[in-house]
Amino acid sequence: MPDQSDNNVSAEGIAAAASKAARKGGLPPVHLWNPPFCGDLDMEIRADGTWFYEGTPIGRPAMVRLFSTVLKREDDRFFLVTPVEKVGIRVEDAPFIAIDADIASDRITFTTNVGDEVTADADHPIIIRGDKAEPRPYVHIRAGLEALIDRKTFYRLAAAAEDGPDGRAGIRSDGQFFALEI
């Protein structure tokens, strides 16, 4: 693993670049940015959605939100990117947690722990991994980034479930049916 000090990689530099991009409104266009790899940053997103930097939880929600806007996935690796640098970070499971859902009759809109909102649809499917004993539900947020649906929200989805065309229980959102069973 490259040492971050050898590459002048810092969380502060990434945060400054992300902040500058955020001032322009909306999410930064990370899908258009392909800067050179500058090494790995000692940053991790734990399975419970907590972000750590150098072994310490990042306690400022605004800073976590800022970093989340410049998160990019390439294959099975995660990076924080700016127009001029790309640094690797570790992600234990999914980078986000879906902490709530607005369950309407024709759509389900999720809210994540970093403030993203997404309606389950063909581009933002609900995916069930794991097994029958321990299903692990996710929703696609953007560009290969998913949110693990937390337990209370999954229970609410299950309470609203109906039988699907293949006999599995699931929910409908934006004209799509999403099975909640494996």
UniProtKB/TrEMBL annotation:
It comes from the Bacteria. InterPro entries: DUF1285, DUF1285_beta_roll_sf, DUF1285_C, DUF1285_N. Residues 28-94, 95-180 form the DUF1285 domain. Pfam families: DUF1285_C, DUF1285_N. This is DUF1285 domain-containing protein. It comes from Paracoccus methylarcula. The lineage of its organism: Bacteria, Pseudomonadati, Pseudomonadota, Alphaproteobacteria, Rhodobacterales.
